[in-house]
Amino acid sequence: MKVLALSDSLAPWHSFWIRFGQYAGALPWPVQISDDAAAIDALGPGDSLLLYRYALGWGDLAARLQQARSRGVLIVADVDDYLWQAQGWSRE
Q1: Which residues of the chain fall short of a pLDDT of 70?
Q2: 3-85: which CATH architecture?
Q3: Which residues pair with 34 in a beta bridge?
Q4: CA 16 to the chain's CA centroid
Q5: What is the model's pTM?
């Protein structure tokens, strides 16, 4: 299993590091940290996606996330209100 931590920003002062990034090295699995949504496409069965917030440049993630789920990727999301404000995205 590998873990992809996807954040809207990798800036050193961003809350991603406080909430997740500082713990990534303690996980027993390989962790990739990225701000590029295309990295989701490399995940396979049993891999995990930790989605932190949302970047407008990612566009509509619905299809990409549905494809990842159909491949057996586990998805955990902490997208807060950024995602709910994005056009074309529903809470469902």
Answers
A1: 79-92
A2: 3-Layer(aba) Sandwich (3.40)
A3: 6
A4: 11
A5: 0.82
Query: Which residue, among 25, 67, 63, 71, has the nearest Cα to 47 in the 3D structure?
Result: 71
Distance separating alpha carbons of residues 24 and 39, to the nearest angstrom: 17
In this structure, the chain runs to a length of 92
Spell 32-50 as b/e; 16+ CB within 10 A means b.
Answer: ebebebeebeebeeebbbb
Residue-by-residue DSSP string for 16-55: HHHHTGGGGGGSSS-EEEES-GGGGGG--TT-EEEEES--
- Contacts (Cβ under 8 Å, ≥6 apart) of 33: 5, 7, 10, 21, 24
User: How is the chain split into domains, by residue range?
Assistant: 3-85
